[in-house]
């Protein structure tokens, strides 16, 4: 039986991560909490807007209302990576060789491993950021499409056009596809080899959470009463195929998804705080957490694939231990 | 759900460069009114106050991908409001300052069309600052100045000390011609009582029009009267008699006004006719309609029904019981461009209950 160790905090949880086996919870007020032989915390920002886990460097990268980009590593070691002034840092992404990218207004900044920063100005706001899995290449979600840059070279960016506002972006782990979340209730995808479009629509709500399953075979998404899981095994991705609908609930909406690191299982968080784990093959559901005070906004698996750190809109966070 | 209690009111402040927006913002931020405001500005620029709750944001207009040209939202506001609302408790209300040339419509529509924004905030009112001296010039060279007035719930007619009483009357008549439903305040140095600007509930169906007890009652000739439905300042137009009710010459003396308003009134309506009608009108004429507001009396309905809209977005709800002695009549005003007044009137009349 799964057990839950709760951590009741005040405020909206933006991201969770395990660093060296210790669960971290990054809150919107700028404080990052951790359960490391007791409850400890570090204040990183005056207002934290975005955070993402750097798997290779084992650190959490955060961006704030204070115009700072910070890194928080094991034992809560902190490093200020960039300070941009009074602008909000609205997105961060992790690249290869210690590179990171972050967004302020219409500018995407890349900070290379050596600390050098390069700016990429755009005609419209930089809404979302993601690095490709291989090579020094990153994508920007923007109005009417996405732009792919090669920051290490002077190469011309690749423009991917699709009408509408694109708010988030992710590359498939094999690097063959780019998928964006949109202001409307849909995902859009491009097959990079030939620029073919993929429309993934039918969501009753905006999609705010995406997660690739092991080896990138599936893409799980929020924005519906079920987790919508698109098949990406075929060379054309999900085109012409129906997605899986996992963990359907009549009276709740999926707000967060997080795929198991190696098995075809997804942890699904709902707007009422419930968390289920569902296996793709037989759609078998296991209740991991009962409803809480608010929507699940963040989840992360540990390296041992045994625990899930979750965070909520209302601050009721915790760690689920699947082995009990 | 507790949305109703936790929705944060948002005031939108429009007005041309030099109309006094920054002065008003500084007052909102510095005066002791017991409320904390988060302010979203385009540039920190001249706001001389250091405050964590002032957020700079690049105006970013997104057309929605639904084939409707008037369905636009402000993408940057969605992002900033979402960010601000993740740390509630720091402020009681939000003020959005727009650039001088901004179209107020996408700003307002953001608060209706984006589900996340809508669940956490509610549009309180659109306030337009107007420079009394330069308005005629502004109207000549831009459509935005006119849109800002047409779209406003409250018009602050500022810098009245720079014009003569005569000029002020003309400017006010122009504002009134563009927007007969707005509340007008004459001020100097943006010295309007902040209660007249903030927490107006102009988009709140339970309060809308309740603030304006004389909504459209005063006159039948809506194109030209100088005296608003609710003018609460001292003015003397009754003393200078100048074709008060048929003052087309005055309003149209400013040739550059392209916005018009159509005010309709009728008897009790048949809901089976009225609802399909309003839906059809807003679908067909949506791009031309900037705002619509109305109080509708339905036959055999003890409660009055209020409607309000922005382009194609229409909302309506029962507001309260008709008071004793209150006349059961329906009143509706459209503010927009290229409106066919005759056709609107005839089709509106056809919705009356038999």
Describe what you observe in this structure.
The complex is a heterodimer of chains A (324) and B (354). By secondary structure, chain A is mainly beta. In chain A, 0% of the residues lie in helices and 54% in strands. Chain A has a 6-stranded antiparallel β-sheet, with no helix packed on it. In chain A, strands 1-30-29-28 form a 4-stranded antiparallel β-sheet, with no helix packed on it. In chain A, a hairpin with a 2-residue loop joins strand 2 and strand 3. Chain A is globular. Chain A starts with a strand and ends with a strand. Chain B folds into 2 domains: 196 residues, Rossmann fold, CATH 3.40.50.300; 92 residues, CobW-like, C-terminal domain (Hypothetical Protein Yjia, Chain: A,domain 2), CATH 3.30.1220. About 10% of the residues of chain B have low confidence. Classes of the chains: A mainly beta (324), B alpha/beta (354).
